[in-house]
Amino acid sequence: MRDNWKDIGRDIVLILAGTVVMALGLDLFLVPNRIAAGGVSGLATVLHYTLHLPVGAVMLALNVPIFIWGFWRLGWGVGFRSVLGTVVLSLAVDSLAPVVSALTHDTLLASLYGGVVVGLGLALVYRGRGSTGGTALMAVILRSYTGVNVGQLLFLVDGAVVATAGIAFRSAELAMYALLSLFVSSWVIDLIQEGISDAKAFLIISDKHAAIAQAVLQDLDRGVTLWEGRGGYTGKARTLLLAVVSRSEVPRLKETVYRIDPRAFIILADVHEVIGEGFKELDKKIY
């Protein structure tokens, strides 16, 4: 189904807002402290200090061949939103640089807060279904040749940028701070994309599965799914129960299970996100 103009407008606003936030993260924290936290922006930071070139202009110049390569290899599916994000980010970095100054010259603080702000901005861009090109697009292109996981390729490319910065600045410490900032930004992106969930998943194995399922349905008012399985050692058919509850309901569910069957086997796992009845609804505008 084609996007309507309202959805397109919303995506553009998110991409514009995200790129401006990213530019602030670079200009306020990372670039002034020579923290090259991977990506095209990291390589542009190195060239800024070694060749005295403007960061935004270098980012745009480096992205041009990457996009040409992407269009040639992947087709026009690379998309308008990615081009928009790349161009606006480059312009915003150079436009804001003369009017803002570093908020701190403490390298640790700069790497942490820079990672948070850049991660927040990039998450907004992703919410707008866009990107800022760079090494992320390069990783997708390389995957079309090698078949290697995009995450692994992105780690290798960003790692090469960080290593280059460490050599150029003759500082292993700056390289380590850059890795820290890269980790923080990735964590913030995941946090915003997946949301903060306090849900827990229970996988319960018990001979009294019917009674436990009934108790979960009635006492906790939560759904439960029954799976048919077989013990690997005994070969005996078993019924497994899957239930997802909130963090506050965990003690009640444990108590309920052990009250019915003290010998029950329970696996408790964190759940990043739960969409559906009793939790949260799907935001169709984002997906």
Automatic annotation (TrEMBL):
Keyword vocabulary terms for this entry: Cell membrane, Membrane, Transmembrane, Transmembrane helix
Transmembrane segment boundaries: 12-31, 51-71, 83-102, 108-126, 147-168
GO cellular component annotations of the record: plasma membrane
Keyword flag Cell membrane: yes
Keyword set includes Transmembrane: yes
Signal peptide positions on this chain: none
One Pfam family named in its UniProt record: YitT_membrane
Protein topology in the membrane: Multi-pass membrane protein
Compartment(s) of residence: Cell membrane
UniProt domain DUF2179: residue ranges: 222-276
Coarse class of the protein's main subcellular location: membrane
Alphabetized PANTHER family for the sequence: UPF0750 MEMBRANE PROTEIN YITE, UPF0750 MEMBRANE PROTEIN YITT-RELATED
Name the UniProt record assigns to this protein: YitT family protein
